[in-house]
Design brief:
The chain has a 6-stranded mixed sheet, with helices on both faces. Strands 2-1-4-5 form a 4-stranded antiparallel sheet, covered by helices on one side. The chain is built from 10 helices and 10 strands. The N and C termini lie far apart (45 Å). With 255 residues, it is α/β, with parallel strands linked by helices.
């Protein structure tokens, strides 16, 4: 693969006696939407956090846009990479607009440019302009997560990392927001890496699915290819979960 946006080479990480990642090699092409899936403790979130320097590996290297992550000051690296997580983490004492503007303000953008970017992002994430003046507490869970996405995109990053971004949402909101995030990915030409435990979500949203178990990379392929070729029993079990759920649903509904 020529010039990937993200490249992990032999990345390993331990937390005491617990192995989180073991010699992981992963190349993410520019413009790809990649889902990291696996059970609890498989290493998904640890892998994601190595990309923006929130976790330092014990061995191996990570490059973003061809630059070694270890050689980039952490604050500069993180301002180049959007990050969305399940808890959202909006500042309660700031308005929605002020939350979105945090990184541009740190980067020294002028007031007019910030205001224009906030207005653009509210429209991009399908929130009305007047919502910018509200505190996060006045928003629904889905609306807060949309603000989290807008904040992650505020400084115009080319890479977006998402850690279980829809996990706390109700199914209808989750489905709607997932589709909107995929549309944003395509519209903005992002490179997106998303952690999810939901295989159905991964199949519906991602170009590629990366399966992790016990810190090891078990599979890495497009959803259709993975369905057709995967032989590892852990990978097969994950892939077959949506089909099993659909069959049980049909039985319960008498279809």
């Amino acid at each position: 693969m020529a010039d990937p946006a993200i490249l992990l080479s032999g990345v390993s990480k331990r937390y005491g006696a617990q192995l989180a990642l073991e010699r992981v090699d992963l190349a993410v092409p520019r413009g790809a939407f990649v889902a990291l899936v696996g059970g609890s403790g498989s290493g998904k979130t640890t892998l994601l956090k190595t990309i923006n320097g929130l976790v330092t590996p014990d061995a191996g290297s990570i490059a973003v846009d061809g630059e070694d992550v270890a050689a980039v000051p952490p604050h500069r690296l993180r301002r180049r990479i959007g990050y969305v997580f399940q808890e959202v983490g909006l500042f309660p004492h700031l308005t929605v607009a002020e939350n979105i503007a945090v990184t541009p303000r740190l980067l020294g953008w002028d007031r007019g440019r910030i205001a224009a970017r906030v207005a653009e992002l509210l429209e991009l994430v399908a929130l009305p302009a007047e919502m910018g003046a509200r505190p996060p507490a006045a928003l629904s869970g889905g609306q807060r997560q949309r603000v989290g996405v807008a904040r992650a995109l505020a400084a115009e990053p080319r890479i977006l990392l998402m850690d279980e971004p829809f996990g706390a949402l109700d199914p209808i909101t989750r489905d709607s927001l997932g589709g909107d995030v995929r549309a944003l990915h395509d519209r903005l030409g992002l490179t997106t890496v998303m952690v999810t435990h939901d295989m159905t979500e991964a199949v519906l949203l991602a170009d590629r699915i990366v399966v992790l178990a016990d810190g090891r990379l078990l599979a890495d392929a497009a959803p259709g290819e993975l369905m057709a070729t995967a032989r590892d029993p852990q990978v097969r079990a994950l892939l077959e979960a949506p089909r099993r759920q659909a069959e049980r649903l049909r039985e319960r509904l008498g279809a």
